[in-house]
Amino acid sequence: LLLGGSYQTAILTSLVMVMLSLSVVIVTGFSGQISLMQMAFAGLAAFAVSKLAQDWGVPFPLPILIAALLVVPVGVVLGLPSIRVRGMALAVVTLGAAVAISKVVFSNPNWTGGGLGSQVPSPEIFGVSLDPASHPARFGVFTVVVAVLLILGVMNVRSSPLGRRMLAVRSNERAASAVGVSVAQTKLQAFALSAFVAGVGGGVLAYLLGAVAFTRFVPLASIMLLAMVYIGG
Q: What's the average model confidence in pLDDT over 179-197?
């Protein structure tokens, strides 16, 4: 509310990165599965937001929620290899999936608009503009609310039965299976939930940018995100 435009943009970007980082916390921090495709989930949601809002006229903020839900089954499918492989092998598999999405989906100009990207309309609620360029403070309040809700949600997941199952799988898969935990189901649930959180972050990022370009969701971005979360603790 008090800072200039450049600082406001930096804070907004940081808040979006908090959302994306939370997706890593779920899949890697809680369940111990190394995923290098979180930015791919965010990118799929961002382009879905563009289609929903720009082409189909779905009012804000529904495109963010719908896009995040659409990414969930993708997360489950791409999380299937985690049932058979783990550790660095899983990291390689998920990185390959991120590369495939980048080449097949993001690099297709018919789907993503090419280098110019896909346009996203200015967000508006009940006639009140939340345009990040014209009203960054308003959009900032919305972003803070979403980030806080996700933080609280992830905290609650950790203390829930699902969270305890994830922590058990992270500690020792064989021991978790021996006490009745379905390791495969828990892993897929972790991927599904992390894909949803990453999708929310990607949707908010789409509105923040105003135009979604595939260059922001390249596989290297997922590696950098994992490194940032790991260094952050």
A: 92
